[in-house]
Specification:
By secondary structure, the protein is an all-beta fold. It is built from no helices and 15 strands. The strands form three sheets. Strands 1, 2, 3, 4, 5, 6, 7 and 8 form an eight-stranded antiparallel β-sheet that branches. Strands 9-10-11-12 form a four-stranded antiparallel β-sheet, with no helix packed on it. The termini are far apart.
């Protein structure tokens, strides 16, 4: 760590392997350190407070982490974990160092046939959206899950044809509404999934 005023260099107690990553938190309070779990798509995640030179947790906050986002004020960390049967959305309150389960998928009938992905905060950070999916032969059935971050209630949006459906909410400035554009067809061959660029625009009330 280099002090921009004095030029002094301080070595941080962070040991990184080849595929580990370090990113700044939204407000620059923490370094978000992701330790790669070999031969998986998951990481272990922890936060390092640069001002106090201390880890938020003596061990990792969580492992088997697939995706995460942190609020702009660095007060809350949301992350997804997965195992062979189900996926779970968690909330980590950074100030109190407490963890809360917010949502879990159903248990899959076979190994790795359900999951969560594409975790995204709305522009004003009043909502959290993610994709929930079920594996089927040749692809996935996708659903949009939207959570209110004041009440932690949620609802799902399901396309007329959820096979490979792609949801990207476009929020109104007050976040009472959002648009999604859904295609009529996402898959034309088993090997390559283009779209036919035909479909509809939906206006959805988030309240």
């Amino acid at each position: 760590l280099i002090d921009g005023y004095t030029g002094n260099v301080t070595s941080l107690p962070i040991e990184l392997a080849e595929r580990d990553t370090v990113k700044w938190s939204s407000n620059g309070t923490y370094l978000v350190v992701e330790a790669d779990l070999k031969d998986t798509i998951y990481t272990c995640i922890n936060l390092y407070d640069v001002d106090t030179s201390e880890w938020i947790s003596p061990e990792s906050i969580a492992c088997e982490v697939k995706d995460w986002v942190i609020l702009a004020d660095d007060s809350q960390l949301f992350y997804i974990t997965e195992d062979e049967q189900m996926a779970i959305l968690w909330l980590f309150e950074i100030g109190s160092k407490s963890t809360r389960k917010l949502y879990e998928t159903r248990k899959g009938d076979t190994i790795n046939d359900v999951g969560l992905s594409s975790l995204e905060l709305s522009p004003n950070q009043r909502h959290l959206s993610m994709r929930e999916y079920d594996y089927i032969l040749g692809g996935t059935l996708n659903y949009l899950l939207v959570m209110n971050l004041e009440t932690y209630t949620h609802f799902e949006v399901v396309a007329p044809d959820p096979y490979y459906a792609d949801y990207t909410p476009i929020w109104s400035s007050d976040e009472l509404w959002f648009l999604i554009k859904l295609k009529d067809e996402y898959i034309t061959t088993a090997a390559f999934p283009p779209t036919n660029h035909k479909g509809d625009v939906y206006l959805i009330n988030a309240e």
